[in-house]
Amino acid sequence: MRQRLTRASSLFWVAALLAAPAVADLSPVERDIVAAVAAEARAHVELLERIVNINSGTMNADGVKEVGSVLSGVFERHGLQTHWVDLPPSADRAGHLVANATPQNGKDVPNILLIGHLDTVFELDSPFQRFEYLPGNRARGPGVTDMKGGNVVIVAAVAALAHAGASGDVNLSIVMTGDEERPGRPIPVSRKALLDAGRNADYILGLENNINLTSATVARRGSSGWKLEVKGVRGHSSQVFSDRLGAGAIFEASRILDAFYGQVRGERYLTFNPGVILGGTAVEYDARNSRGDAFGKTNVVAQDVVVRGGLRFITEDQKKRARERMRQIVRTNLPQTEATITFTDGYPAMPPSEGNLALFEQLSAVSVDLGEGPLSQVDPGRRGAADISFVGRLAPSLAGLGPVRQQSAC
Q: Are 203 and 395 in contact (CB under 8 A)?
C-alpha cells in the first residue's frame, strides 16, 4: 500500500506544482511532467483569466454552468469523459461538473478523487468582477484562488500527465461542485455526486487555495448555521422594564449574544459568529440573499429580533457541546421576552486521521524530491469549511493544495 500511495500521490503532486525549477530525485516520467507544466504555464494562466472573467456567483446558475462548460471542453480535449449533474429545482443551484479518466490498459491503479468548485462568493451585483495582472507574477480577481486557480491546477495536472504518458498510472475522478460557497438543500441531494465519487476513492485531494507554499491541510473544521429569534412586547418606551412590557426583544437578544461570548467561547477550534442582526418593531429577513429590513423607533420597545450566525468546530462532539450550551442560554429569558434558537447542518468536520497523516508524509517527501523542502501542517483554526469534509472520512485526504492567496490578491 505504501508503494501505491507514493506513486499515485507523487505523480499527481509533481503535475500539480506549477513551478518547480529544482528537481532533485525525480524519475524520467516525473521530469517530463514538470517540463510539461512549465511549457503550458502561459496557457494555464490564460485559462484562469478566461474563467475568472465569467461571473459564477453561487446564485448565478448560468455563469456557474458556463464555467463548467469551459472546463468540460478542456478535460475532454485531454481524453477525459465529462457530464453535468443537474440538481432538482427545489435545490435552487446550478449543478456540478464531473469528469473521469479510467486507464484502458487494465492496470490496477488507485482511484484519486480531485475536488474543485465552480462558484464564487462574488455575485452579479458585486463590483469585483474582472481579472487583473499584478506585479511580481501575481493576479487578482473574483475566485482567482477560491477556487478557479485550484481548478486550473487540476487542468494543468491532467494535461501534464497526458503529455508524459502517465495517465494510465492513476484513475482520476474529478468533481467540481457548483454550490460550494452556499450548498443547496437538502445536503444529501446536493452532495450526492461528490459522495458517490468519494465512496470509490482510494485517496482524496482538495485543490482549494493554500495558506502558503510549504504546507498542506490534514484537518478542516466543520461549519453549521444557527438562527436566533427573539420576541418581546411592543409598547411605548416610557414603559420599558415595566411588568407589562418587560425588557423588549433587543435587550434579550443582547443578553443572549453576550452570554454566548462569555460562556461558550474558549474551546480550541470552536468559533461562532453572528453574521447579521435585525431588530425593531417590524423585521423582514431574506435568507436566500442574506439580506433584510428592519423598522423601529427610539420611543417604541422592539418586539422582534432575528440573528443569523455560523458555528465552526473540529469534531461532531464539539459541535454538539456548543449547541447545547447555546440552547441553555436561550432558555432563560428576560421579563416579557421569549427566544428560540435553531441549528442547520452544513459542512461536517474533517478531523485529522491516520490516513490523512500518512498521505501528508508522502506528499512532504515528494516536496523534498522537488527541491521545495518538507511541508508543515496547516492549523485547522486558519481554515474554513470545504467540500472535502463531506468525503474526508471515506479515504485518506488532503486539502488546501491549490494556489496561495496573498493579502493583495483574492
A: yes
CATH of domain 222-347: 3.30.70.360
Let me know: does 222 contact 350? Beta carbons within 8 Å: yes
Which neighbouring-strand residues pair with 216?
A: 377
Tell if the pTM clears 0.85, that is, is over it: no
* Cβ density class 155-190: b for 16+ within 10 Å, e for less: bbbbbbbbbbebbebbbbbbbbbbbbbbbbbebeeb
Tens digits of per-residue pLDDT, 292-319?
999 999 999 999 999 999 999 999 999 9
Q: Which residues pair with 277 in a beta bridge?
A: 307
Q: Where in the chain is the domain with CATH 3.40.630.10?
A: 2-220+350-398
Per-residue model confidence as pLDDT tens digits over 87-101: 999 999 999 999 998
Contacts of 6 (CB under 8 A, 6+ apart): 362, 365
Fold of 2-220+350-398: Aminopeptidase (3.40.630)
DSSP secondary structure letters along 111-152: EEEEEEE--BS--TT-S----EEETTTEEE-TTIIIIIHHHH
Give the Cα separation of 361 and 364 in Å (integer). 5
